[in-house]
Automatic annotation (TrEMBL):
This is RING-type domain-containing protein. One of its GO terms (molecular function) is zinc ion binding. Keywords: Metal-binding, Zinc, Zinc-finger. PANTHER family: B-BOX DOMAIN CONTAINING, E3 UBIQUITIN_ISG15 LIGASE TRIM25. Residues 71-109 form the RING-type domain. Gene3D superfamilies: 4.10.830.40, Classic Zinc Finger, Zinc/RING finger domain, C3HC4 (zinc finger). It comes from the Eukaryota. InterPro entries: E3_ubiq-ligase_TRIM/RNF, Znf-RING_euk, Znf_B-box, Znf_RING, Znf_RING/FYVE/PHD, Znf_RING_CS. It comes from Dissostichus mawsoni (Antarctic cod).
Amino acid sequence: MASSIPPPEPMKMAGDIHGNWASFRAEFEDYLLATGLSEKEKPSPAHWSLMMAAMDQSPFSLLSLEEELSCSICLCPFDCPVTIPCGHNFCQDCILASWKDSYSCPQCRTHFPTKPELKKNTVLSTVVETFNLRTTKSEADLGTAEDSQAESQDVIRCDTCMEAEAAQTCLTCMASFCEEHLRPHRENPTFRVHQLSEPVGDLSERICPDHHKLMELFCSQHCRPICSVCLQLVHKGCSFMSPEEQRNLKESDLRGKLAILDEKITKNERDSATNRKKALALEYQQIRDMLAREESEALNAVDCELQSGQTKLKGLSKKFNENVVHMSKAKEDIHSLLSQSQTLAFLQASVNLPKAASFDPYTPQINLDSKKVKAMQAFCADLKEHLTEMFKPPVEDRLLIRKPVNVQLNF
């Protein structure tokens, strides 16, 4: 349904945007309702052009909208803004992430019994896009202006026309000239004795503060630039040369010092690498010595246990041999008794017969796995496991492994 209500004036809209986004939004919504458009529909190009014209006439008004055009959850400009039933707007991803447990408005805390249907706010989305374009353009224009200003400050202009870039500076005239205004110095014999140089920005640095003359000499003894008056009054007996000659000497001296420094740095790096290599080799040698000592102690412990077992074995062997002799004697006595024909003699002899049948000839097993040997075996296993774990990464990555070895021997 068409309406006779005129659209808001562009400048008035721009002022409302600059002053208060809420009032601008309310006025714009009233305008949409009066013209028969709903929030779901995008304004006509004519109406939208009016609003864009207002924004263009007041470019700084968009900057004041940054807070109003930002999502209250992520605090960033809206990305695909959607409107929930209570009227508040959020980024679609932000509101969906906040609705994992319950459905409520993060801003006014209004609770919804079921998950509301999200509808994209087309008007707000377009305003945010326009805001981003305007702010990006403003930042780019500002950066371009700053770069242009910096470049203009670095460029030395001609002192005659004040526009063209200077080609050379005359140290006699104390002025800079472009190619066009430098022609008299190149063509007129009168100016041929003038000293020309590359463009100099601040010529005041070349002026003697005492005599206001050009400092075209350099005193080698006092290491300072001087003018012709300084030479006559103060530096009569001093050796001097032109600043360019002094610079050439200084540059040559600095290059020599630089070469010496490079040589010293290379030598120090080489010596440092050699020393580090020696220190690393010493560390590995100490590790090998420690492992050799541990191996020697472990093997000695096993040898001690073996000798102890052999001593026990000899004792048991002797006892076993004695038992064999006793059992052989008992066997002969039993055979002799069984061959006895006299009953009374048999009974009398059986009373005095040793209890050979109850003798246990079992020899106990000799176990060399004492507590000390077992502890040494456990230590070796732990050490091997730790070293294997340390040596898995490449050498360059082992610098990050700084865990101390926590292996103890408990005998």
